[in-house]
User: Fold these one by one.
Assistant:
Number 1:
Amino acid sequence: MIEVVRLSKRYGDKVAVDDVGFTARPGRVTGFLGPNGAGKSSTLRILLGLDAATSGTASINGKRYRDLDRPLRTVGALLDGAGPVPERRAVDHLAWVARSNGIPPRRVGEVLDVVGLADVARQRVRKYSLGMGQRLGIAVALLGDPEILVLDEPANGLDPEGIRWIRTLLRDHAASGRTVLLSSHLMAEMAGTADDVVVIDHGRVVAQGPVAEVTAGHPSLEAAFFALTGDRPGPGR
């Protein structure tokens, strides 16, 4: 389980996260929504031990990320912008990550099959398309067969078939009794994937609960999101 309690983060005079609290529970996909700059990335970075909180806590199964033993066996993560050395082959990158966390080498081939990269596993990552690179990031997240997945924009760069694949993967992960925390700007996809949503705006949680509860009185999750955040769709959005 993921539990965030009264979490705040300041960067100088700027408040990025302001008294945020929510829980992502086993057996459910929890969507984490908010406009750009709302505090989502700061919250996820604190949760994954990449940044320190000013106050409050963010825990995984009751522990801080840095206190987990072999963390990839507990939580698999994909954050936007993270990736391997471009000159490294995908299979070598995964093998290195596996060794660093005591994960059996057989898992490398297994996750390459799961994400559909087995046939291009020995290509240099620099030759990968955006969608292939995203699949490799998801393979890293799955490598330790973790109880918990924390994914930031996992459908980025995926084609329609790939989006359907990641939706099924996440739903199956939750159906097996595991926990998924998912951040995405794809509202229609989130509505079809998430059980619960947490909406954050200007660093504060403005709504949370089951999707049906948050969208009550609105024609869609997208409409509820715009009403809650004061954001409005514009050209290209």
Number 2:
Amino acid sequence: MMLDLYTWSTPNGQKASIMLEESGLPYRVTAVDISKGEQHDPEYRRISPNGKIPALVDHDAEGAAGQPRRIFESGNILIYLAEKTGQLLPQAGEARTEVLGWLFFQQAHLGPMVGQWHWFKNAAPVESDIGIKRYREESLRLLEVMNGRLGEASYLGGSDYSIADVASYAWTKTAIDELAREDAEAVAGLRPLLDWLKRVGERPAVEQGMAIPNDEQKQDTADRAPFKGPAGGGSVLP
């Protein structure tokens, strides 16, 4: 049995590699250099239709036309691996509902808002004070929501570590690191959240997953030419 993970060094990519490390399943890594547009390669788009990382191929499960099964979108990957292994996702009841609620909180709110804050602050071609302010404030509000939850429970889903924590760890770390450079006082006030970050970050699987793809895996992309995709004027592929 083997899984192929297509990923890059981003919080979304790190969700999948952390979960694979937690699961103990064997997997191979293909680095997809999003800075070079490799996510727009038609071959990759057959695995991930929206041209995003991460994506997973399970050679032990049948997909369309008898091909190995593709699993795209990071939240979908977490649920798939949790159900495949019986790990980090309660099977039923309120515990499952709570874990999935916090998973979708990350998918719908934390990730998009922190991502927009980072882009407006560090990557936008034109500086936008209103964009930076809008997404910074919303990112901080979401961190405060998490802080409140973690003041009453050890983990986002409750008493046990789950895919909700896997999903949120790298995005939270990114936001806290960004915020700490601007406002150490605001960060210091998020004590339950900081304690959770430390507790989760010390898990061996998290440490290993955060380092994927490693330098050797990234080296495989070094000689590939940049790929011109939709953002560069290419056509949108099916």
Number 3:
Amino acid sequence: MEESLKLLYSVVQAIHPLDYADWEALSRIWKPMNARRKEIVTSAGDTERYLYFVTDGVQRIYYLDDQHREATLAFTYRPSFGGIIDSLLMEVPSRYYYETLTPSSFIRAPYSEFKEVAHTRPAVERMLRAGMTTTLSGILERLVEVQCFSSEEKFRNLLKRSPHILQLVPHKYLANYLGIDPTNFSKLVNKVRI
């Protein structure tokens, strides 16, 4: 747990530095959690109750339509925050699934406790806002890619953002995430070098 909190501390400090008292208040609310491979951590219809911080493994957030077609929306892995953030922050049922792709370890904080810390510690609230701003910026960039870029451009951008992703995430999920046919994705893997 101590190593996980050190990792969380380094990520939090990079988002928005906290002083000792603010960090102590924030660090007390996290508890360890483990999940097996292909475990649904949060299901569509459930309200997300925890903010997760990934310390090991790979997860994905996906949408399942009424015809059971999947759309992979995001991946999380060490060291990043995870969970269904819109459900968490708005306290509404999720439209998405949060699933482990590999055995995974997290520390997680109940949102009720996180809200209390953020309410009493303005620097923690500012850290949350700074993190959400960066996340929103990334989502907008991703929307432009989805709507305007060719398959090869999407693939190249993914590798620029996360050069290690091909070793972390099964290719079928990456193809789905990029909206590329799996066969064409395999061709891109063999063709494109960054």
